[in-house]
């Protein structure tokens, strides 16, 4: 699925809408991965940064939980409760930000490892 250029919504909103629908319709079941940022960027033909924005929207709605191992769908029935501010509303906001930073850190780690692997391969050729 690619992003429709004639759609007035931003690309991240279109991607979020598609994933939201898939989670709510059970195409992506609770507890299952929604896909890596790289896979979703390829699927929607958008940049990883745009994918991150879409995932942030869904995380803020309570439809996603992000760990160091990926982004997982949550039960849509429980998502409404998760998105509601609790008495520790400030704490939940901090936790969401921490999840986002953890996700970005994981992506950066993957990129550094790929770069280092490519660099060591070139160093071997030069010798």
UniProtKB/TrEMBL annotation:
The keyword DNA-binding applies. InterPro entries: Bact_HTH_transcr_reg, Tscrpt_reg_HTH_GntR, WH-like_DNA-bd_sf, WH_DNA-bd_sf. Residues 79-88 have a biased composition (Low complexity). Residues 67-88 are annotated as: Disordered. Keywords: Coiled coil, DNA-binding, Transcription, Transcription regulation. Residues 9-76 form the HTH gntR-type domain. CDD domains: WHTH_GntR. The keyword ATP-binding does not apply. It comes from the Bacteria. Residues 91-118 form a coiled coil. It holds the Pfam family GntR. This is Winged helix-turn-helix domain-containing protein. It comes from Streptomyces kunmingensis. The lineage of its organism: Bacteria, Bacillati, Actinomycetota, Actinomycetes, Kitasatosporales.
